[in-house]
Amino acid sequence: RAEDGSALWLRYATGTKAEINCRKQSPTLNIAVSELQKYWKGGLPVTLEVNATKELRALGNEGYTIRTSADGKQITIASSGEQGVLYGAYHLLRLQAAEQLSESNSSATNSDSKLRVLNISEKPDYRIRILNHWDNLDGTIERGYAGHSLWKWEELPAVVSPRYEAYARANASIGINATVLNNVNASPKILSDEYLQKVKVLADIFRPYGLKVYLSINFSSPAALGGLPTSDPLNKEVIAWWKKKTKEVYSLIPDFGGFLVKANSEGQPGPCDYGRTHAEGANMLADVLKPYRGIVMWRAFVYSPTDSDRAKQAYLEFEPLDGKFRDNVIVQIKNGPIDFQPREPFSALFGAMKKTPVMPEFQITQEYLGFSNHLAFLAPMWKECLDSDTYVQGAGSTIARVTDGSLFAHPLTAIAGVTNIGDDINWCGHPFAQANWYAFGRLAWKHSLSSEEIGEEWLKQTFLPIAGQPSRNSVNEISQKERQQLHSQLSLLNSQLLQESREAVVDYMMPLGLHHIFAWGHHYGPEPWCDIPGARPDWMPSYYHRADDGGIGFDRSSKGSNATAQYHSPLCEQLDNVDTCPENLLLWFHHVPWNHRMKSGRTLWAELCYAYDRGVQETRNFQKLWAPMEKYIDPERFRDVQHRLKIQTRDAVWWKDACLLYFQQFSKQPIPYELERPV
Ligand code: GCW
After folding, report:
1. In a mutational test of the pocket of ligand 1, which residue from 185, 299, 310 has the highest number of ligand atoms less than 8 Å from its CB?
2. ipTM exceeding 0.90?
3. Confidence label for 113 from pLDDT (cuts 50, 70 and 90)
4. Could you say which of 3.90.25.10, 3.30.1490.20, 3.40.50.150, 3.30.379.10 is the CATH number of the domain covering 8-122?
5. Does domain 464-468+478-554+591-679 have CATH number 3.40.1190.20?
6. 339 is catalytic
7. Is 3 among the catalytic positions?
8. CB within 6 Å of ligand 1 — which residues?
9. Which of 193, 344, 490, 624 has its CA at 20 to 30 Å from residue 67's CA atom?
10. Beta 46-50 vs 128-132: how paired, if at all?
11. pLDDT in tens, 235-269
């Protein structure tokens, strides 16, 4: 019963062919039919319908209904579009695999119990639900921890890996409908004729699954690839070059999505090189893409070493441009103002652009959360961002509502996730990292889903025994009693491991609002002491933690860099005041004396010690929570997780000891005896 994780959450059992009816045929509908024929075990026949009723039109061509007929004898999946039918089919299979189909809803469910009456109606919250691959054309992945790129560029277009289709299927199963194939640090070569032929092959494979291809472009492609003397966006020849190139792209890929652009950031070229604004650069590309209904995703991740506070820069650069972008441009904003730290406040830019559609960029790959060695379920972090209130139109102006089109009625809505996928057999490195790909898709579809619901779905699909297969310790199927125990174990894993894991990382790496005290060059271990003479100050940890004899933390209040002023009232005042600022962001916004009294009654120093220690102890508990899974699942996945959890604890101790010993030279206070102290 070896399992290698390659099936992801799609570990469906095959068996007798189910009765599936569909009057139309098409590549997309055929996938829906075949998936259900092979894997639907619910007993009732399923009818698939593409139908333009008023109700279905309101749900859009990706929305759907799933209903049991009045006589209870069949199920109908209906949508006004073929894509919606496919999503409906995966929804039904998900309910089955997560054992959420039976009437009783008890943990003792099995395939024999009575099917509940289905009355489901769904439509996605975002129009574009997109993965961003930071994959380079040489096969490496920037910040990738699961092997090399899935895209075998040197073999394409002739050789087609079966994983391309498996990738599209996995995305379709969770509603992801778009993907950017290459790194935002983009090679101009991606737009060469040679590479476009390769991209076309991928787009053709993805199309029936409703997965649209986008590309990251290098802003100086006209010069670098086209040989022009400039890439100035207002230059006529440059515009003509982009027009010709875009025409070529669409002749190969008629439903091509558009361009993602990282411009004038971390050494990338951009319109500012020619004295033009980000809007001028984005609009030039938008005009070129417009006739094909393509869009531009323009990243707001910009900062330079000259300004005093990096956390303020994206806002300062982009807020004045609100209203200056074409309607097929969307500004892509990282969740926090710095860079995917374990915890950041939300980026104030979300509340600053009323006239411009903006989209969140989340990082699924764990660049700053232990790579693929640490277990960190990220749904709680993304929910924290989406549920944050910007107050841009008064209370209730959450980031979810700013970006899903409900607050400002922008028709263009999107959400991006920097993916953690590589060519490892299990796709994501850590078996639990698959949960983050899954969670991103589910939240992009429906941001009101709770992290607990998503965790439960994923755990059940990933670890319940596949129906009809022998159990871990015998040739028989798992017994009813064992099944119940496994269900309780999974529910513990959900509440105490998945849901706690991100907070544990925050605790053992950067509690209380600390950020970016990572080692130089990679972003894995701690190096708060790092000081490289002559290096960019904003790339040094001391820039961020500012520890000294007087205290620790970055003063971004009105007495300091005044980043708090970028937030709307009443949040602005709340963050600005050291007594009302949430303690989990305290050192992000304030430089606080070591003896400052925290809500717990402890001093800041003691609180810091307790937080680091709590993080370590949590990871020890994760190992204990995982141990009983040995009885229920295959040894391969069991040991893989067990092994990584050990590494996580070892690293957590490393973080705690390194940070506490370093900061102690400023606090000059002992580490409390009741904690696990460094030697
Ligand atoms: O998170 C940082 C990374 C860079 C990345 C950059 C970005 C793709 O350390 O590797 O480059 O942000 O988002 O552009």
Report:
1. 185
2. yes
3. low
4. 3.30.379.10
5. no
6. yes
7. no
8. 134, 142-143, 184-185, 262, 266, 301, 339-340, 367
9. 490
10. unpaired
11. 999 999 999 999 999 999 999 999 999 999 999 99
